[in-house]
Design goal:
Layout (H helix, E strand, L loop, with lengths): L3 E6 L3 E6 L2 E6 L2 H13 L7 E5 L2 E5 L4 E2 L11 H16 L10 H17 L5 H11 L9 E3 L8 E4 L2 E5 L6 E3 L1 H9 L6 H8 L5 H21 L10 H7 L2
Antiparallel strand pairs: 1-2, 2-3, 3-5, 4-5, 6-8, 7-10, 8-9
InterPro entries: AGP_Transferase, Aminoglycoside_PTrfase, Kinase-like_dom_sf
Pfam families: APH
Protein name: Phosphotransferase family protein
Length: 245
């Protein structure tokens, strides 16, 4: 009998694996609706939907393995990272879905709130927060929205050899800034940013990518802490902030 592996679990959703089946349990069925619709429309490999019985969505396991893990050096080849960049470009070139993804005004407000919380609770040194808040400002600019994944964490991109075999977790997909996807994909793995941009095949404003690195880290530390994750682990969010210049 296959064991039940808890992939991730918090108060918003949980994912467990049983053999070759992933079961996603989400309290927000509208989010699951968007995920299923986004996967059907995305011009990149996605998991097969096996069945859906709210609040559970059953997905087939993807071949290959995650391109990397946060805090651990990637063993994937430069070709695999470039293939990931090319897959993201195909997504961004596709017709975007009708619903909005990330909202810049909301991002700016959350940045203010989270920086205030970090300083009030003495979580990070004030100069580190101030410096990264300045870096983050580069991401908060008008942009032509594209079909964005919205949470393109390295653990969500599966590769085998030099090819992308699938992209997971489309809950946050929508219309938004494509450079946010590139930033999520390379967060904690800046040494592969060049490979991703080469595969993307389009001029990329690297200051904006770095801005999204800072913004994502600054605004996620409290959530990670409250949900039992360690943002100060080697190579994770706090180290990313420290590396920013």
């Amino acid at each position: 009998m296959d064991e039940v592996e808890v992939v991730v679990a918090h108060d918003e959703r949980a994912t467990v694996r049983v053999g070759e089946v992933f079961l996603k349990i989400d309290a927000d069925q509208a989010a699951t609706d968007r995920e299923v619709e986004a996967m059907a429309a995305a011009p990149v490999p996605t998991p097969e939907v096996l069945w859906r019985r709210p609040p559970v969505l059953a997905l087939a396991a993807l071949p290959g393995s995650a391109i990397a893990r946060l805090g651990v050096p990637s063993t994937a080849s430069s070709e695999a990272w470039a293939a990931a960049g090319a897959a993201v470009r195909r997504l961004h070139d596709a017709p975007p879905p009708p619903w909005t993804g990330r909202d810049l005004d909301a991002d700016a407000a959350r940045l203010d709130e989270e920086c205030g919380w970090l300083l009030a609770h003495d979580v990070l040194p004030a100069d580190l927060v101030t410096r990264n808040r300045e870096v983050a400002s580069a991401a908060l600019r008008p942009v032509e929205p594209v079909f964005m994944h919205g949470d393109l964490h390295v653990a969500h991109v599966f590769v085998e050899g030099g090819e992308v075999t699938g992209i997971l977790d489309w809950t946050e997909a929508g219309r938004g800034d494509g450079l946010y996807d590139l930033a999520c994909l390379t967060l904690g793995h800046p040494d592969h940013l060049g490979d991703v941009v080469a595969g993307y095949g389009k001029d990329v404003d690297l200051d904006v990518v770095r801005g999204w690195w800072s913004l994502r880290c600054l605004t996620s530390i409290r959530w990670l802490f409250e949900h039992g994750f360690d943002a100060s682990a080697p190579g994770c969010e706090v180290d990313v902030l420290r590396a920013q210049r």
